[in-house]
Specification:
Blueprint: H1 3-6, E1 19-20, E2 23-24, E3 32-34, E4 37-38, H2 44-54, E5 56-59, H3 65-79, H4 103-113, H5 117-123, H6 126-135, E6 140-142, E7 147-151, E8 175-181, E9 192-195, H7 198-212, H8 218-222, H9 239-246, E10 250-252, E11 260-263, E12 269-271, E13 282-291
Parallel strand pairs: 3-10, 4-5
Antiparallel strand pairs: 1-2, 5-11, 6-13, 7-13, 8-11, 8-13, 9-10, 9-12
Length: 310
């Protein structure tokens, strides 16, 4: 039995109904479980083994929480100019102003922030950079296209189930995604949920898509939007149905500032609706690493832009 199987936590009944795309996850409690944390001090070989076995590794308090929270405050101090943050509140708390948001201005500010030196530095913190070099057994390459997302409470925003390789087919499949919650992110705030054991499911799905796409042009084959894919490249918007279909569970977690989750490009994951009981905005970044010697998807050589279809 693997250590992850031995550490498997019992089915979890959240204090609230978790919702994603209009579907309630918690109507089937046997389809919910808890993400298993990993102490970064266990050593690289153990971390690699857990990653191979489970498709993810949740590194607890890997980054300095004070650095993470300071960056959260910096981001929201800028986004506050678009009316996103409750007036007079501490930007680090990220309290939602609710209505009256100037979406156009907020989007423009966000696109400036992801191009900033401060964001680049946050994503390239020495401990994370050094860890990824060791994890990837060589010089790690951080893709220029780095995504930063915020989700307000009281909105229906939720990311459907998907695996990342769908959007990165133009390069190597030896990728690693780092999902970093920027600030404490309790389960009610709609952080990432992972489909247990789905890195093997994603491999089978990608093999099937490859077989179906043999007659497509090279450009169409790498696209997440070819005729063999669902809209947007999603596996499904119906998260409860996905868990039932594959006979597995969605793993949920209360994340803390400083946590980093590494996951396989085949690992199926999604987010739920932000239902923060304390009115806090969820803020996170997802960035991709690979060995610099492997083929790089050229489409990811540009900064992230809203609507760039990747």
């Amino acid at each position: 039995m693997s250590s992850r199987a031995a550490d498997r936590k019992p089915d979890r009944a959240p204090a609230i109904d978790l919702v994603a795309n209009g579907k309630i996850l918690s109507t089937a409690p046997n389809r919910l479980g808890e993400l298993v944390p990993t102490d970064p001090s266990i050593g690289m070989e153990a971390i690699r083994r857990l990653y191979r076995e489970s498709g993810y590794v949740w590194l607890k308090r890997f980054l300095d929480p004070d650095v993470v929270n300071a960056f959260r405050g910096w981001v929201f101090s800028h986004l506050a100019r678009g009316g996103l943050v409750a007036p007079g509140s501490d930007p680090m708390l990220g309290l939602s102003a609710g209505t009256g948001v100037d979406k156009g201005q907020v989007d423009r500010i966000l696109m400036s922030l992801v191009r900033s030196v401060a964001f680049e530095g946050f994503c390239a913190q020495p401990r994370l950079a050094g860890f990824m070099d060791e994890f990837l057994s060589g010089i790690s390459y951080l893709h220029k296209r780095k995504i930063m997302r915020f989700t307000q409470p009281g909105t229906t925003t939720a990311t459907p189930a998907h695996y990342d390789l769908v959007y990165l087919r133009g390069g190597t499949n030896r990728l690693v995604t780092a999902w970093i919650p920027i600030g404490d992110t309790s389960v009610d705030m709609g952080g990432l949920v992972y489909l247990e054991g789905s890195h093997a499911i994603g491999v089978r799905m990608e093999e099937e898509f490859s077989r179906k796409s043999r007659d497509l042009s090279a450009g169409e084959r790498v696209s997440a939007f070819n005729r063999n894919m669902t809209e947007g490249g999603w596996v499904s918007k119906d998260l409860p149905d996905v868990a039932e279909r594959f006979g597995t569970r969605w793993l949920i977690a209360d994340y803390e500032a400083g946590d980093v989750v590494l996951h396989s490009p085949y690992m199926i994951h999604a987010s739920t609706t932000n239902q923060s009981v304390s009115n806090r905005i969820r803020l996170s970044t997802d960035i991709r690493y690979q060995n610099v010697d492997d083929e790089i998807d050229a489409r990811w050589g540009n900064h992230w832009s809203l609507g760039d279809m990747l």
